[in-house]
Design brief:
This protein has a single domain, classed as hpI Integrase, Chain A, CATH 1.10.443.10. The longest helix has 17 residues. A 3-stranded antiparallel sheet has the order 1-2-3. It is globular, with a radius of gyration of 17 Å. It is α+β, with helices and mostly antiparallel strands and 117 residues long. α1 packs antiparallel against α2 and α2 runs antiparallel to α5.
Length: 117
């Protein structure tokens, strides 16, 4: 069965771009996402949750987060992640701090699902 995509409105000159999520909306989304990941633990849900929290707390691009190697790029002791910058002609890397609760959650995920490493 084919599913037809919804029509996405295009922006025209003079049309405002929709506002970003408020802090309250982001916090609510985070809680719902975590509940979803925890209600039926699986490697796939754990990976989605890990990607979400790194995106949420670093501001990285999806492609940068998906290119991470937890053994090489996440420093659990220093609470930082080294992100590859993929949008430049010369590949480079930048170090971004992680909140302690994100480091703890990533450690918990990797301990529960070691094959995600």
């Amino acid at each position: 069965m084919l599913v037809r995509a919804a029509k996405v409105p295009t922006l025209r000159a003079g049309v405002e771009i929709p506002p970003h999520l408020t802090e309250e909306e982001i916090n609510r989304l985070t809680k719902v996402y975590q509940r979803w990941a925890d209600e039926n633990p699986s490697p796939q849900r754990a990976r989605h949750w890990a990607v979400f929290i790194v995106l949420r707390f670093t501001g990285a691009r999806v492609s940068e987060v998906l290119a991470l190697d937890d053994m090489r790029d996440i420093d659990f002791r220093r609470a930082e992640v080294v992100l590859p910058t993929l949008k430049r002609r010369r590949p480079s890397r930048r170090t971004v701090p992680l909140p302690p609760n994100v480091v703890a959650e990533l450690g918990r995920i990797l301990a529960a699902f070691p094959l995600l490493k």
